[in-house]
Amino acid sequence: xxxxxxxxxxxxxxxxxxxxxEAKVGKMTVSNVIGCGSQGGFTESYRGTFTEVNLLDKVRFxxxxxxxxxxxxxxxxxxxxxxxxxxxxxxFIVPLEECxxxxxxxxxxEAIG
Amino acid sequence: MKKxxxxxxxxxxxxxxxxxxxxxxxxxxxxxxxDEVTGSLQVGIDTIWVLFAAFLVFFMNLGFGMxxxxxxxxxxxxNILAKNFIVFAISSVAFWVIGWGLMFGDGNPFVGLQGIxxxxxxxxxxxxxxxxxxxxxxxxxTGVPLWAKFFFQLVFAGTxxxxxxxxxxxxxxxxxxxxxxxxxxxxxxxxxxxxxxxGGFLASLGMFDFAGSTVVHSVGGWAALAGVLILGARYGKYxxxxxxxxxxxxxxxxxxxxxxxxxxxWFGFNPGSTMGVGDGSAIAHVAVVTNTAAATAVLSSTIxxxxxxxxxxxxxxxxxxxxxxVAITAPCAxxxxxxxxxxxxxxxxxxxxxxxxxxxxKIDDPVGALSVHLVNGIWGTLAVGFFAVDGITGTxxxxxxFFGGGFKLLGAQxxxxxxxxxxxxxxxxxxxxxxxxxxxxxxxRDEEILGLDLGEHGSKAYPDFQGFLTK
Lengths: 113, 471
Prior knowledge:
heterodimer, A: alpha+beta, Alpha-Beta Plaits, two-stranded antiparallel ribbon, 3 helices, 26% helix, 36% strand, B: mainly alpha, Ammonium transporter fold, 15 helices, 0% strand, globular
């Protein structure tokens, strides 16, 4: 069992979700985050003063998957999020120790679904 | 009530002073002296009314800014507010420098030719009718000073310009909008305005537009339509498979409050167009007619939205009120309260259907301005031809179709709609196209995604808040 954490550009949210559903991955948690990487920030000006802003809006997916779904999910995320430009994002794969379904109490690979 | 008391008080005080001065000077109080006092008080009261109404119409700029920014995304809020704020400044200058003269100067049936620049023509307002001597004879029927007439007409011109802002929102370059607004208020709006209110050929034809369904609202609508046809839809609005992607507004609170502000402002727009208090009956009639149309339009737009969308959509409720108000703008002084209710009812239905129709033909109008101002501007102008009652508040319009007048009035209205539409659409198209060639009309794709606040203005509307995406 693995937890996939993907940070992507906000406007790619719909594309990534669509690609994941085509890969039969339908369960996820999405949050709005800010972050920085290689992508530069922007200059903001207010009443005569300028400032550099480099924490940009991003969208984070957290998806718990069984082993055989790791590659399809990652491929789907890349398909949806890649634009070729700096700032496309990063995917982290983290080992998942346990997963429990709240409604029934199932654990393990059945709980991930 | 308060106005009546103040008015009576003013007259009493005035008479008191006059009579006292008379007594001190040992001059008899003649009829002529009393007439002079009453006359100058009349001008005073009329001027207060015209200016107060103009201030209400100025206030509508607030309403437009709120409705537009509320119905668009947070990342474009600064840009939309900036457009709405600067467009009134542009209107003020353009209309003063050249607009007023082209619209109200004496000239030929198509444009004013005298007193064009800086409202500088000869004029002895507040003299009216035969006593008037000057070059703005088209507007010599109202007994207020020249600058009161000018300011009142100015805020109307400003309204037409701000309509365009909503339709082209979220993807137009700030500078392109600025340039076009100068052209619209300085040249296009005054020319068609001259045809109807400036003593031009449409007025001679017997076309009537009391407060501007055509002169203001549909002109703004046609100009906006020309713009959006060249500009195109927002990125991501229409998917590749042809389906429509709804782009949510970021603040329904803002949009609703803006709708109320516009409703209030319309009480200056419509009753103010009498440009005189008279005995009060006309302005009272127009005020109630205005409100009635807005009310029935809200109800019908809510019902239609409820039926089609399964749940009543607040933005459609608001658009309904605005549609009713636009639709009643032309007929407000020519129809009964009952007719106003019917006109509003139809306006509410039209606006909901129009919003959906424009999306279906891939014309992206973020705030529904085309459905409110263009479609209902046309409907309001036609409604005069259907519902007018000759002389109901004093103007001899002839009767509309439903009141025994036949097709004469309706025909004149139709000619007006077509003439103004053809000219404004074509001229705006040319103006927008030249702007596109020289300056580029649309922001880049990356900037549209980043948000025009940062792209055009380098600042955010809500820097403390993070944008929260849900789809």
